[in-house]
Amino acid sequence: MRPRPRRVSCSSMQPSAALRNRALSSRPARLAAFYADVFELEPRNAPGDGSAYLLGDGRVTLMILPWKISDFDGSGIAQPALDHIGFTVPDLDAFRKEAEETARLNPHIAPRPIDINAEGAARLALFRKCPRGAFHMADPDGNLIDVAARA
Fold first, then answer.
1. What is the pLDDT of residues 41-93, one digit of tens each?
2. Torsion angle of C-alpha atoms 103, 104, 107, 111, degrees rounded to 10
3. Element holding 77 (H helix, E strand)
4. φ, ψ at 53 (rounded to 5°)
5. Alpha-carbon span 151 to 136, nearest angstrom
6. Closest among 122, 32, 136 to 92, alpha carbons compared
7. For the whole prediction, is pTM greater than 0.85?
8. Could you report the per-residue pLDDT of 109-135, keeping only the tens digit for each?
9. What pairs with residue 144 in β-bridges?
10. Domains delineated in the chain
11. Would you call 151 helix, strand, or coil by DSSP?
12. DSSP states of 114-147
């Protein structure tokens, strides 16, 4: 088993508050499988139909919530969103190879390319401005992830 990745922040500040969780709204079973397999986050619950999946690394919990258009009745669906999630890994080259192997073995939970069109290329160029990430990818739903070697 490979060592567990750890979260990276693009902020140089050391806040007194601790990050407790991140939440993504999506197709929860598919994303939970992606984060459990690619980043070895451990399931923290046994979700039922329509409930959130909780995964963690012992410090931060990732909540993957079901998403339904009807949840946005009466409002616009363009809401402020998470910019990206950052992880550190002991060996970046080994991680890249494992991510490629995951994509080969199970395309359903494969990382998604970011720069597939002009909009994606612009998004990736902006994403690369984060000084902490060295490898940029997206989960199956397009949530951006940066990965760096642990110092």
1. 999 888 776 678 888 888 888 888 787 777 656 655 555 467 788 888 889 99
2. 10
3. none
4. -95, 135
5. 18
6. 136
7. no
8. 899 889 898 888 888 888 887 767 899
9. 138
10. 19-68+85-149 (3.10.180.10)
11. coil
12. S-SSHHHHHHHHHHTT-TT-SEEEE-TT--EEEE
* Amino acid in the structure at residue 100: E
The pair of structure tokens assigned to 123 is 């998004």
- Token pair 């931060």 is found at 60
> At 14, which helix (H) or strand (E)?
none
In the numeric block, which tokens belong to residue 119? 């909009």
DSSP H or E stretch at residue 24: strand 21-26
Angle at 141 between CA 129 and CA 93, to 5 degrees: 55
Query: Which residue from 67, 37, 30, 38 is spatially nearest to 51, judged by alpha carbons?
Result: 67
